[in-house]
Structures are given as C-alpha cells and as structure tokens.
Amino acid sequence: MRLARDVVRVRVPATSANLGPGFDSLGLALGVWDEVSVRAVAGPTTVRVVGEGDGALPDGEEHLVVRAVRLGLDRAGAPQAGLELVCHNAIPHGRGMGSSAAAVVAGLVAARALLAEPEALDDDALLDLATQLEGHPDNAAPALLGGATAAWEDGAGPHAARIPVSGDLRPTVLVPQAQLLTHTARAVLPTQVPHADAAFNAARSALLVLALGGRSDLLMAATEDRLHQGYRADAMRGTAEAVRALRQAGWPAVVSGAGPSVLVLERLDDATARTLEQHGWRVLDPGVATSGAHLVG
Ligand SMILES: Nc1ncnc2c1ncn2[C@@H]1O[C@H](COP(=O)(O)OP(=O)(O)OP(=O)(O)O)[C@@H](O)[C@H]1O
Ligand SMILES: N[C@@H](CCO)C(=O)O
C-alpha cells in the first residue's frame, strides 16, 4: 500500500454521548466542528494548534491526531511518514463534547484519504480503531456517521447504526468553565448496578429512539438515567444541580457525555439561557450535524 496524496483536510463534528440513558451506546453529532489538515512530509512531525488546546497539547508524535493517523496507516499496511498537522479546534476539551473522539476520527479519516486504496479502511475499520483509542464507541460513531447513532460491541468488534432524528430537534449545550477528564468521570462508576436500574435504563433508551424520531412528548421520560449520572454527581456538583433544576422546570436535560457540560434536547428560551450565562455557563445552540467527518477542499 502506498500513499497517493500529500495533503488532506478533514472536518469532524463535536458529539454528545449517552443522551441520558444510553450509557456507552447512544450519541448525537453537534454542529461544532474541528478542522485538521494533514501533510505527509520527509522531515519530522510537527503540529500547530489554533483555538481549543493551543499551548496545552503535545506538538509531535504524542498528539492524539498523529497517533490516530499512524494507527490508520499501520492497519492499512501503508508506510509511515513525517506529518505536518494544522488543527483549527472549536470543540471544547474535557467538557463532554467528544473532543478526543473528534481528534481520533479526524486522524483516521485523514489516514484513509492519504491512501492509494482508501477502501482498505472502511467505516467498520475506522470505528474499530477509534474504539481502541477511545475505549468505547459512543462518541466515535456519530463523529463518523453524523446524526444520532446507537453503537454496540460484540466478539467481532464495535458496530453502529444511525437513528432517525426529527428535523425539529434543536439541542442546547451548556458548557462550564471547568474541565473534567473522561477517565476521572469513569473512575467513580461502580462495577455492578442493580438489575432494576438496568431495566429502568433499557426502557428509557428504547423510548429515546422514539423521542429523537419526533415523539417529543416522550423526551422527559426518555432522558431519565440511573446508570451513570447519579454516581458522578459529586464529581460535578454544578452540572448535577443544573440538570436537576432544568428538569424540574420541564426541560429534557442530561449530562453531556462524561460531563461536565449539560445537553438539553430542546432549544432553551432566551430568558433561561440568559440566566444560565449569568451563572457562568456558555450556552450553545449548535444544531444537529447531519453528516459526520468528511474531507474538505
Ligand atoms: N483536538 C484534539 N487534539 C489533540 N488532543 C485532543 C484533542 N481533543 C482532545 N484531546 C485530548 O483528549 C483530552 C480530553 O478527552 P476526554 O475524553 O477527557 O474529554 P472529551 O472527549 O472532551 O469529553 P467526552 O469524551 O466526555 O465527550 C484532552 O485533554 C486532550 O488530551
Ligand atoms: N460513555 C462515555 C462518554 C464519554 O466519553 C462515558 O460516559 O464515560
């Protein structure tokens, strides 16, 4: 396998995982985009970051996008090269908006586009490699496919399917100042949960598929969760309190991914949004990204 192109440019969307009950399975692509250009060069690897992560990320082989490109090239049996990366990042890091999955998926899609035979890395292979780096497929699936997705794993690896989403769905994301890394938020989860709680979430996940497709009357019931949010509340007190207050006021609010952002599966009214901004939240109205990662230029 040889490289056929010197330079490729990829756009990849933010994602919100779990959506309440669908822990490690459900995800939604959001209209906030990172853009990464990758050039194969003879010299050493360099990385320039503009926007989120500027000055805080590795600038060489340890950078997550570089690691993902290398994983993709290795899987395809292609030669490695020096890489010159320019990353224009808009997705906030460590906030539950899928920044790490976006970096991984951008690198894998770039690797595929560099290949003389891109079919060597189909979407299943990309999801498999992304899940190796991420540990779970629920952000990578919507970052790759766009829209809402259900992801699951079996002996053959991870899989994902699109969930139909009503054109009326207008998510709001509330982003706090503080970061919380996913591995910290996963460390507080129990290894076992009560059977009744698993049954509770199974019913809500099924309802959520209906609600996303247009049954907005089901959104409140469909976004209840007993598998992760309660266990994580002490690690993100402000988030837990915002979710509680919004739900009490009738908004279908959940923790976005591993937090600490809040996802509301409706557009907040201006007065509520202003109040939240006064309390330090950045209020985003990103829309649903109906397409996933793609090449530009
Ligand atoms: N665009 C990027 N380029 C390089 N590294 C990144 C990028 N985005 C995220 N990372 C790495 O991933 C870390 C954040 O990943 P983490 O999984 O903790 O949060 P998240 O992906 O933003 O949230 P979540 O998985 O809950 O949606 C950053 O601290 C950084 O090390
Ligand atoms: N399902 C994951 C999403 C964050 O990457 C979690 O909640 O830990």
UniProtKB/TrEMBL annotation:
It comes from the Bacteria. GO terms for molecular function: ATP binding; homoserine kinase activity. ATP binds at residues 92-102. Its EC number is 2.7.1.39. Signal peptide: none annotated. It catalyses: L-homoserine + ATP = O-phospho-L-homoserine + ADP + H(+). InterPro entries: GHMP_kinase_C_dom, GHMP_kinase_C_sf, GHMP_kinase_N_dom, GHMP_knse_ATP-bd_CS, Homoserine_kinase, Ribosomal_Su5_D2-typ_SF, Ribsml_uS5_D2-typ_fold_subgr. Residues 219-271 form the GHMP kinase C-terminal domain. Gene3D superfamilies: 3.30.230.10, GHMP kinase, C-terminal domain. Residues 64-147 form the GHMP kinase N-terminal domain. Catalyzes the ATP-dependent phosphorylation of L-homoserine to L-homoserine phosphate. This is Homoserine kinase. It comes from Georgenia soli.
